[in-house]
Amino acid sequence: MTCDLSVKFNYLDFKNPVVAASGTFGFGEEYSRIYDVGILGGICTKGLTLEPKEGNNGIRLWETPMGVLNSIGMENPGIEAFIKNELPKMKKWDTRIIANIGGAAEEEYILASEMLNNADLDMIELNISCPNVREGCMAFGMKEKSAGELVEKIKHTSRHPVIVKLTPNAENIVRVAEACEAAGADGISLINTVKAMAVDIKERKAVFENIYAGLSGPAIKPIALRMVHEVCKAVSIPVIGIGGIMNWKDAMEFIMAGAHLIQIGTANFVNPEAGKKIVSGMKDYMEKEGIKNLDEIRGII
């Protein structure tokens, strides 16, 4: 039996639901030396800001028994350099391109979205959930009022569809999602990393200079799955599920919880071919189970 992995995300067609998550895949070039990244449904860029950012000082990654802590600080080349140097290379691959943008203030988000208006990409992902920068980002995603107001302004300036990436650290993630939908968001992605920390008992101090960092990987999957399920039940716009997806079984759980697409992050570090394997694993499962398309099982829980 032939199965169909394609997904309609609003009016955009994705060949399959597997998207490389922001910050874990760079701009795809390094992974393209390992496998054809055009196999993926999409690639979400490294978080982009108006100006280049060097990121945080000190230790940036710290392994845990069931995941990884990161405090990268949105290191990136800036939007102009992305458009000039990275986007043309990404366009060579037959996959959807999502530009993740962040900022320290409302004005920076607005200018960033405007700068991308003439760029040949498919969507922008509004990062209002990164816990690893001192200003902006997660502050906008903590409350529904600030999230909704920012989304509404971005929708007035962006010619691209806007998806909003939410933080699990929000006061009420469902209400934030509903506020984003009411403000005109075209989709929701969740969850970003969970605010966490690590201590170096030999040095008797926090591992990270910022003290707190973002936890990702298998440890957060049950939390992410629950939040994705709750949000999918509350909004009518499509949802992208993120959080601890390491294999095709995890991916199918998020689809069954209601997600249209899924993003893989930490899995790319564990196995650089994770995206490829998840796509093939989902296909094999659907063929074995007699599932013709993902609509048959999406949101069945």
Tell me the number of structural domains: 1
The helix/strand order is EEEHEEEHEHEHHEHEEEEEHEHEHH
* Major sheet characteristics: 8 strands, parallel, barrel
CATH class: Alpha Beta
Overall pLDDT score: 94
| Category from helices, strands and their pairing | alpha/beta
Task: Give a structural overview.
There is one protein chain. With 301 residues, this protein is α/β, with parallel strands linked by helices. The chain has a single domain, classed as TIM Barrel, CATH 3.20.20. It is built from 10 helices and 16 strands. The protein has helices at 29-32, 79-90, 106-115, 138-141, 144-157, 173-182, 221-234, 248-256, 266-270, 274-289; strands spanning 7-9, 12-14, 18-20, 42-44, 61-64, 67-70, 96-101, 123-127, 162-165, 187-190, 194-197, 199-200, 205-206, 212-216, 239-242, 261-264. The strands form 4 sheets. The protein has an 8-stranded parallel β-barrel, surrounded by 6 helices. The radius of gyration is 18 Å and the shape is globular. It starts with 6 loop residues before the first strand and ends in a 12-residue tail after the last helix.
Short description:
The protein is of the alpha/beta class and 301 residues long. It has helices at 29-32, 79-90, 106-115, 138-141, 144-157, 173-182, 221-234, 248-256, 266-270, 274-289, and strands at 7-9, 12-14, 18-20, 42-44, 61-64, 67-70, 96-101, 123-127, 162-165, 187-190, 194-197, 199-200, 205-206, 212-216, 239-242, 261-264.
